[in-house]
Amino acid sequence: MSDARLTALARESEAITRQHFGRAIRLFAPLYLSNECINNCSYCGFSRDNPILRVTLEAESVVREARHLAAEGFRNILLVAGEHPKFVSNGYLEACVRALVPEVPSIALEVAPMETPEYERLVQAGAEGLVVYQETYDRATYQRMHTAGPKKDFDWRLACPERAYAGGFRRIGIGALFGLQDWRTEAFALASHLEHLLRHCWKAQFTVSLPRLRPCAGGFVPEFHMDDREFIQLVCAFRVCFPQVGIVLSTREPAALRDALIPLGVTLMSAGSHTEPGGYTGEGKADLHLTIKGRQVKPEGSAEAATGQFEISDERSSAEIARLLQSKGFDPVWKDWDSAILAVSNS
Ligand code: SF4
């Protein structure tokens, strides 16, 4: 795309974003519950074959992590966990959500796909958002990247947003992981998926994420590259095609690029993120263990922290991001969702 066309696209994207979202940027933080996982996803640090430091936080530790985030200002927290039926059961997730309801007004989940009745129980417990990325929409690539575990089932994952909707979730996020396939092909498939969901799950608010791969345990090297300029093009193209859909920008992206994207189309940003369980407070340290070939092994010496899912790029604190937004004339919104709004909109 020529410079002139990209500039015109960016201007259009900016104008549409202001029209539909004003100058509000919602802030959220991921809270990792567990990095145990039975899947092998070649691109993920939590893959079961990686001999990393793992832990699953007790519900009390999750509450302490959430309190830390709430003290920073966050009211919108995304609970993240690997897929492990022993450690991350539905009962465990429900218990975590119930423990957090008095502390956090807006709770979303990014966990293994489930059946609709399981989603119903999580919604009843107090969760209202569900995030699930297809990773890649190319079936052959998907098969190559997912070599073991339930995640191998492409169609089970693809239908997950609709099961979540049927289970009562009204805030649903989808996305693709850029770096696994040609970015244009993935973007087209992601847009088609989003269009389908907007038609069939019309009571839900949708967000879209466009994460690029980051370094992680296992040392996966992406075969495909999307540079910063192309990333800006992608964000703006999604905004122009989907004026009312939220666009998420995570701390995977470098600070300078995040700053440049603030006015152009994004509506949700994570800030000050950690991608390891206990990352905000050091909770869970006593239970850290290595998993080597499926066996739990005590680490030699004193282990300080669990292994993160991937390396963060923008390491600025949430307070710094909030100040930055204000200095650019934007309103950092720590929460803009309430179950009362859901009750009215569904009546
Ligand atoms: S991407 Fe998810 S399912 Fe795959 S290894 Fe990582 S945590 Fe497990």
What is the count of DSSP helices, taking H or I runs of 4+ residues? Answer: 12
Low-confidence stretches: 340-347
- Range of helix content: 25-40%
Number of strands: 14
- The chain-level mean pLDDT equals 94
The structure class reads alpha/beta
Small molecules bound in the structure, each named once: iron/sulfur cluster
Biggest sheet, spatial arrangement of strands: 1-4-5-6-8-9-10-11
Distance between the termini: 45 Å
Bin the strand percentage: 15-25%
Q: Radius of gyration from the CA trace?
A: 19 Å
Shape: globular
The helix/strand order is HEEEHEHEHEHEHHEHEHEHEEEHEH
Give the biggest sheet: 8 strands, parallel, barrel
Quick structural summary:
With 347 residues, this protein is of the alpha/beta class. 37% of the residues lie in helices and 18% in strands.
Keywords, separated by commas or semicolons:
8-stranded parallel barrel, alpha/beta, globular, single chain, 347 residues, binds iron/sulfur cluster, 3-stranded antiparallel β-sheet
Description:
This protein has 347 residues and is α/β, with parallel strands linked by helices. Helix content is 37%, strand content 18%. The protein has helices at residues 3-21, 59-72, 90-100, 116-125, 139-145, 154-158, 160-166, 183-200, 228-241, 255-261, 318-327, 339-346; strands at 24-34, 40-41, 53-54, 76-81, 106-110, 129-135, 146-148, 171-176, 205-209, 246-249, 268-270, 289-292, 295-297, 331-333. The strands form three sheets. Strands 1-4-5-6-8-9-10-11 form an eight-stranded parallel barrel, surrounded by five helices. A three-stranded antiparallel beta sheet has the order 3-12-13, with no helix packed on it. α1 packs across α9 (228-241) and α3 packs parallel to α4 (116-125). The protein starts with a helix and ends with a helix. Residues 340-347 have low confidence and may be disordered. The structure holds iron/sulfur cluster.
